[in-house]
Structures are given as C-alpha cells and as structure tokens.
Design goal:
The chain is mostly helical. The chain has 4 helices and no strands. The protein has 2 domains: 1-66, Photosystem II cytochrome b559, alpha subunit (Single alpha-helices involved in coiled-coils or other helix-helix interfaces), CATH 1.20.5.860; 68-107. The longest helix is centred in the C-terminal third of the chain and has 32 residues, at 71-102. The chain is flat and about 80 Å long. The two termini are 53 Å apart. Keywords: Chloroplast, Electron transport, Heme, Iron, Membrane, Metal-binding, Photosynthesis, Photosystem II, Plastid, Thylakoid, Transmembrane, Transmembrane helix, Transport. Residues 42-79 form the Photosystem II cytochrome b559 alpha subunit lumenal region domain.
Length: 107
C-alpha cells in the first residue's frame, strides 16, 4: 500500500460489530417493504400491469395489451424540459443578483 487516504479497509468494516448492528436493523425493513409492495398489489397498480387473475377472463381469452406505455416517456420528457429551463434560470438569476449586489459594495 503506497499511500493512505484515511479510509478503513473493507475487511475491517464487515468484521465490525457496529456494521452488523446497523445492517441487521436496516436491511430487514427493506425486504419487508418490498414484500408488502408486491403482496398488496401496489406493484401492479404502479406499473399498470394486469394482476395474475386478470390475464385471461371468460370474455377475453387473448393476450392483454398494456395501454399507456408511452405516458411515462412523455412525463420524463416534460420533466427534463422543466429541469433544463430551471437549470438555466436559477444560475442566471443568482448571477444577476450577485452582479447587482456588487454594485453596492463600497470600495
């Protein structure tokens, strides 16, 4: 090892009791939240996919089509446009504010 950045070695971290205490408390709720997300049916609602019992009904024996697949793409495009506008507007306003504030600085 040629130099030290002051970071702990990975082996030291995973053999630490503090590491296992923290992760034994935080990781199980993530699995429980994922299980509840899927078992409650929220995953089907969020992603718009049919539930297992809705694939083939008595009136429809064909493969169901998922509609509205391109709505998220339109929402993403709208978000990116707003982000680009705000990404330019906020620095411009702060720059103009700093320029106007510099005029009042006494020399």
């Amino acid at each position: 090892m040629s130099g030290s950045t002051g970071e702990r070695a990975f082996g030291d971290i995973i053999t630490s009791i503090r590491y296992w205490v923290i992760h034994s408390i935080t990781i199980p709720p993530l699995f429980i939240a994922g299980w509840l997300f899927v078992s409650a049916g929220l995953a089907y609602d969020v992603f718009g996919s049919p539930r297992p019992n809705e694939y083939f009904t008595e009136s429809r024996q064909g493969i169901p089509l998922i509609t509205g697949r391109f709505d998220p793409l339109a929402q993403l495009n709208e978000f990116m446009q707003r982000l680009a506008i705000h990404g330019l507007a906020v620095p411009t306003v702060s720059f103009l504010g700093s320029i106007s504030a510099m005029q009042f600085i006494q020399r």
